[in-house]
Amino acid sequence: MGNQFRTVFFLTVLTVLFVLLGSIFGRGGAIFALIFAFGLNFLAYFFSDRIVLSAYRAREISEDENPQLFGIVRELATRAGLPMPKIYIVPSQSPNAFATGRDPRHAAVAVTQGTLKILDENELKGVLGHELTHIIHRDTLISTIAATIAGAITFVSRFGLWGSIFGDDDRGSNPLFLLLLILTPIAALLIQLAISRSREYLADEGGAKISGDPIYLADALEKLAYGNKKYPLRGVNPSTSHMFIVNPLKGKGIITLFSTHPPIEERIKRLRRMAGRY
Length: 278
What we know:
The protein is mainly alpha-helical.
């Protein structure tokens, strides 16, 4: 399944879910949801990268501010055949990174201050190679659009639930109505899981190849996982958590089944197995 088709397919499914959610408020609700979904898709396509960067207070930096970071990104981008992306710093001690942008010509990579503190140059190459692979595969487009629409689905569902509880509408007593309000955001989450988990494994493989050694990324993931437990990222929106290289949300036990990221231990094992073939 090509990346362009995948983008259209998942975007269509999320849009249908959004319209279905609107339809429970009547024909007018369905029409409004359809129009709103088209508008949301338009905004997500052109502006979702700015929205995500702003949400985490990421600041674009110049080469003079961090020549080493720019040098690494330029080297890897050249090796991958990509235009030089913009580089942002997130003001957080929680070590993490993400990429965004609708295509390689409008791409950006963002790393937190904590990432720059704990990773050495090779480990940073592994992380940035991972993020550049997302850009190559256009994963950044579908992840930002999915985050925007899934967030809207969750908001509308919560609005409907509160309205059914405290409003005078008879639909609040209809179990099918309540079931739909509950299951729709879960379905949106499962779509995000389908998008994210498989793409993370592929980005790990691509990052290992671009950086030149799978061990770079394997070592980096170990440090990032530990650092996230020690310094959790504050103010994380669950609808954007799938964009980070390491899941910034805490989860234990059965909750990890609904994580947007594959188990970090499995990712590290795969990378170390890759190293054995190099």
